[in-house]
Amino acid sequence: MKSKPAFILKVSCPGRSGIVAALGNFLADRGCFIKEFHQFDDLDSGRFFSSIEFVFEGNKNPSVDQFRAAFEVTALRFDMEWEIRDADKPAKVLIMVSKYDHCLRDLLYRRSTGELNIEITAVVSNHEDLRNLAEREGVPYIHLPVTKENKPEQEVRLLEIVKETNTELVVLARYMQVLSNTLCEQLAGRCINIHHSFLPGFKGAKPYLQAYERGVKLIGATAHYVTANLDEGPIIDQMVERASHSHDPQHLTQVGRDIEAQTLARAVKHHVGQRVFQNGLRTVVF
Ligand SMILES: Nc1nc2c(c(=O)[nH]1)N[C@@H](CN(C=O)c1ccc(C(=O)N[C@@H](CCC(=O)O)C(=O)O)cc1)CN2
């Protein structure tokens, strides 16, 4: 029997008693079956966060718009920021790359297996190197070379592409150019970067060399939302791997590839699954 369409209600609001009951009652009163109900009350920031996956039971199948209209009352009562999304609808994701291919390959593969429920709207790069990789997977490739002089116009063109393709999330899959403050503001909360170190250690373009010179015994990767402050955005996910005195920077780079790809894919999966919230300079990840 064809499974009923599932929806995800994502909510954040000032924390207070009665929110969970209100959400539960709202869904129950409309014949919804709750598959997953995640919630967290951050006493420090005073904010409440919840992500709820549900289906409509019986032969009731109100449209999402009807549901949204009905939920507005509860949302206003608790001053909620909220959105409802069809859980099965692929998220529209634009991937940015430079010359390193490992994170792009991994995202393309996880999309092809269905593990990542995404539609890749385009691959945008400041180099031509990865065109074949994208095009043979049927993904449009857009070459936007960046120089100090043309960076502003190229960033305007990127925003046009994001708009034209209805892109919901931009993923920096080892894109090695620093985005301007303006672009970061335009993409706030919908741009994820993979940094090739265990932040806050070893920021910048050459973390593996820094790790080698410092002689660390663990190296890592960090997926974070992109902000104007380089490598300072709210962290979504991290992984580490052991390092040894015998690892030169090249070997550390090799060890790092796998954890970069895995960490980025996990962060993208959490984000498009409506399970990540920005909470000041931190995140809540269900
Ligand atoms: N506004 C932001 N832009 C970007 C971020 C970010 O956190 N905020 N992350 C980077 C990725 N990155 C590290 O993860 C990184 C990339 C590039 C550089 C850098 O210094 N680039 C040089 C040029 C290097 C080159 O051309 O190879 C530069 O832009 O002058 C530092 C960190 C993506 N963008």
TrEMBL record:
Protein name, UniProt field: Formyltetrahydrofolate deformylase
Listed EC numbers: 3.5.1.10
UniProt cross-references to CDD domains, sorted A to Z: ACT_F4HF-DF, FMT_core_Formyl-FH4-Hydrolase_C
Domain of life: Bacteria
Catalytic reaction annotation: (6R)-10-formyltetrahydrofolate + H2O = (6S)-5,6,7,8-tetrahydrofolate + formate + H(+)
Pfam families (UniProt xref): Formyl_trans_N
Broad enzyme group: hydrolase
Biological process terms in GO annotation: 'de novo' IMP biosynthetic process; one-carbon metabolic process
Residues the record marks as active site: D231
Pathway info: Purine metabolism; IMP biosynthesis via de novo pathway; formate from 10-formyl-5,6,7,8-tetrahydrofolate: step 1/1
Assigned protein family: Belongs to the PurU family.
Its job: Catalyzes the hydrolysis of 10-formyltetrahydrofolate (formyl-FH4) to formate and tetrahydrofolate (FH4).
Formyl transferase N-terminal domain boundaries: 92-268
Keywords: Hydrolase, One-carbon metabolism, Purine biosynthesis
GO molecular function: formyltetrahydrofolate deformylase activity
